[in-house]
Design brief:
There is one protein chain. It is built from 13 helices and no strands. The protein is an all-alpha fold.
Amino acid sequence: MIKKIGLVAFSQVLMSLSNLLIGILLIRYTSSEDYGLYVTGFATVLFVAGVQNALIIIPVTVRSGAFDIEQKRLYLRWNGSIQNAALVLASLAVVVVWLVFLIAANGWRYHYIVLPVTIASLGWAWREYCRTDALARRDYQFLLRLDLVYVSMLSVLITLSWVFDAFTAAHFLVYIGLAGIVSSKSSKKSRWRITTNLKRMVRGFIYWWRKGRWSLLSEKVSWVQSQSYIYILGSVVGLASVARVSAARLFFAPMQTLLVAWVSYVLPILSRQVADSDWLGFRRNLWLGSAVFLGFTVIWLGAIYLSEDWISAMLLKGKYPDLHSLIVLWSIAFYATALRTVWLAGLRAFGNYKMQFRGSVIGAVTAIAIMVVGLPIFGEQAAVVALAVSDFVVSGIQYKAVSKAMTIIEGEV
C-alpha cells in the first residue's frame, strides 16, 4: 500500500512541480499583469476540467469500482472515445464563437489568450482521462510513465521558450496543452479513439448527464467558491493584486500536490469500501486524511516561516515583498480546503451529489458575501479569508451528510 501511495504521490509531485515552475518563471520574467492573466486563464482551464471531472471522471471512477478487470477496460474505453469526440467538438465551437466575437466586437485587448486557453483545456482534459484510467485500473506504473512524458515534453518546450525568449502567459498555456496532448497519445494504453458514431455519442451524453448532472452543478458552484476570488479581486483591485495573492499561494503548491495524490488514490478505495459495507476502513481513511493534513499544514507553515525570506529573494526575485500575512492566511485556507476535499471524497463514494450541490451553494454564497463586504475594507486578504471560512462551512455540511448516509445504510443492514 505504501509503495502504491508513493507512486501516486511521486507522479503528482512531478505535475505540481511543473506547474510551480511555470508560476515562478512567469513571476520572475514577466509583468504582474501578464502573470495575473496566466492565473485567470488557468482558472478557466480548471473550469473546463471541473466539467469533465463532474460529468465523466467521478461517475466513471465510482462506477468502475464494481466491475471486474475486463468490464472495467471496456467501460473506460467506451467513455474515453466519446469524451474525445466531445472535446474536439467543444474546441471547434470555442474557436468559431471567438472568431464571431472578434468580428462583432471589433477586437478585445486580451483576445489572444482565448486560443491558448482552448489548447490548454484540450490537452489537460485528454491527459486527465488517461490518468483516471490508470488509477481506476490501479496501474500506477503506467500513471508514472504518463506523467513523466508530460513533464519531459513541458521541460523541452520551456527550454525552447528560454532560448527564444518567449515568456508570456499565452506561450505557457499552449505548452501545457501540447504537453498534455503528447503524453495522452504516447502509449497504446492511452490512445483513445474518437468515436464518429452519432448514436453512441448521444447515448454517452445522456448517460453522463443522468449520472453526473448534480455533480456538475456542484462542481461549478464549487468552482465559483474557490476561483471567483481571481475574477472579483481582478475586477475590484486589479490583475497585479491577483498576481500577489497567487504568489503567496504558490508556497503551498507542494501541499496541494499531496492532497490531489491522496484523493486520486483513495476515491476508488472508498467506493469499494462503500460497496462492501466496510465502514471501519471507510471511517479510518477519512479521519486519517483529516488528521494527516492538519499535521502537514502545521509543519509546512513552520518550514515556510523559516525560509520565507530566502524563497522570496531567490524564487520570486523580490517582486512580492511582505507576503507573511497572506501566507499565514493561505495556510488556514489550505487546511480548510483539505478538510473539505477529504469529506467530499467520502460523499462522492456514496454518489450523493445532491447534498454535495447544496453544500457547494452555501459555500459559494458565503465566500462571495465575505468578499463583497470585505474587499473594500480589508483588501486582498479578505479574498483568502473568504475561501477559508466557506471551506470550513462546507466541510461541516459534508461531514454531517457522510455520517447520515452511513447511519442509514447501517440501519438497513
